[in-house]
Design goal:
With about 140 residues, the chain is an alpha+beta fold. It has a domain of about 80 residues. The chain contains 4 helices and 6 strands; from the N terminus they run H-E-H-E-E-E-H-E-E-H. A hairpin with a 4-residue loop joins strand 3 and strand 4.
């Protein structure tokens, strides 16, 4: 093998190693829905769509509003991408707004920054938490 061939092989190897360290940028993925139904409120991923956020300056968010008008009261849930603001995302959204006979009051605002992190509003207990809690209770008695 000639010197030039060895150099070409070494450069090819170096190029392949460098490719391993290059990653393509990707934006956050969030669950999306806008509804008053239980499927959106409960956050069951089977009933939610997936949204690719358009910017790296966004987070996944879940908002819930209570809307009262002269004839009814209901809760609306919104899940999706939300731009990060210097004042904080929830500070504006949680303010009570009123327009004639309709009052909109924020009752929940949660944000997170990992893919598909805004699924479930209802927090669950870990499988290991309950046995450990029972064991601690038994040991104290």
């Amino acid at each position: 093998m000639t010197v030039i061939s060895k150099i070409c092989v070494q450069l090819q190897f170096l190029f392949v190693v460098l490719l391993l360290f290059i990653s393509t940028g990707s934006c956050l993925q969030c669950y999306k829905c806008f509804s008053t139904n239980r499927d959106c409120y409960g956050g069951n991923p089977r009933y939610l769509g997936i949204l690719n956020c358009s910017s790296k300056h966004e987070v996944c968010a879940t908002f819930q509003y209570q809307i009262d008008d002269s004839s009814a009261s209901y809760v609306t849930t919104i899940r999706g991408c939300q731009p990060i603001t210097k004042d904080g995302i929830c500070s504006q959204l949680m303010k009570t707004k009123s327009n004639k006979n309709v009052v909109q009051k924020g009752i929940l605002c949660e944000t997170c920054n990992t893919d598909l992190c805004n699924s479930c509003t209802i927090k669950s207990v870990s499988f290991f938490t309950l046995p450990i809690a029972i064991l601690l209770i038994i040991l104290k008695i």
